[in-house]
Design brief:
- By secondary structure, the protein is mainly alpha-helical.
- It is built from ten helices and no strands.
- It has helices at about 55-60, 65-80, 85-90, 95-105, 115-125, 130-150, 205-220, 225-235, 240-265, 365-385.
- Helix 3 (about 85-90) crosses helix 4 and helix 8 (about 225-235) packs across helix 9 (about 240-265).
- The chain starts with about 50 loop residues before the first helix and ends in an 11-residue tail after the last helix.
- Residues about 1-45, about 155-195, about 270-365 and about 390-398 have low confidence and may be disordered.
- The protein binds a DNA duplex through helix 4, helix 5 and helix 9.
Amino acid sequence: APESPLSSAEESVKSQQEEQMCQASIQEPSETSESQPGTPLPLPLPGHAGLSIQEMVAMSPELDTYAITKKVKEVLTDNNLGQRLFGESILGLTQGSVSDLLARPKPWHKLSLKGREPFVRMQLWLKDPRNVEKLMDMKRMEKKAYMKRRHSSIGESHLLESGLSGSDLTQSASPQNLSQQHQQQQQQQQQQNQPHLKKPRVVLAPEEKEALKRAYQQKPYPSPKTIEELASQLNLKTSTVINWFHNYRSRIRRELFIEEIQAAAGEGGSPSARPGKSGGEGDNSCDGTESDSTAEGRPSGSEERRGLLESPNLSHRDEEGEAEFPSASGTSRPRGGIIDSLFGIPESVSTAPATATATPCRNPKDSSLRKKKAANLNNIIHRLEKAANRDEPHEWEF
DNA sequence: TTGGAGTCAATAGG
DNA sequence: CCTATTGACTCCAA
């Protein structure tokens, strides 16, 4: 693998190794690209030069993920193409993943090889305008197939999908040669014998998320013990709490990256004035949505669960007149000393929250930034602790 | 094992 | 239909 041929960009030639694939038009501008309505194919990369997509990713120069997603979004909306079709036929990803990717692209240097793949595919796709046409054709064909289907089978027989009988159905697992590792075919509710028991998706109530966020601010990396406590206090499964922390950390981190990109975008010589308003992304963070009255939530009551988790403070936000950064240049950073405002959470004082210093939550913009910075710092602290072979930070004196 | 990166897929809103 | 959100899961590296 240590080969890093500095070969120039790309020199498309050769053919490809992909066989199937409807639109195998690699050669000339023949817009044949005929495909059966039933040729989903998760990811037979869009035709192009010789090497496998992985190789291309490996030697791809740094790409501007933000610019790429911006362009893709533009092209898709301009042509009325949806994320689902684009994702499934061009990127080999599902709609939700595409949405996420387009909305919050991570900077190139923070992406793993795998994570870069979708961006390389997007760029390749953007290179040839004819690709848009192909997608549009595909869309038309899909609609046609859909019409036919619903016409032939009006309200009747939907055969149970449990046995996944043949029948059309889109997105079937492409047979033969489904590319290597491919997607994870997770979610195997195989242990069923009886009528499927699809476990309902867990949906955390706002109060539960609130409590978890509060816990996160105190301890981004809770110990198993803490997790157990949280789980029992919130009446959630331990795994749910663990997952929540994994996801939350990951998503907070991702927001940090976003800022990084936006910040970088505002530099350089070209003073291209962005029409958009200041980059102060709104982050509710403060969310004054206290559990309010309805403390319970969803069936299966489960009362009590009071606990220290309750936010003793009543954070309000003071959104009265605050000067909108009168500073001219847009590159001005909103705030200065962030350090002092990190860790706005007392933690320790378990009892007697009486006077409580109440989590400061003044300006929403500040709090957002602060939270992210804190997340980053907490991450570092956590690593140091690990490295030092210690557990339970307990108290931190600064 | 733990945590991070990527995703999937259900589902809430439009 | 379409898109955004998000709990859960797979894979991998430390």
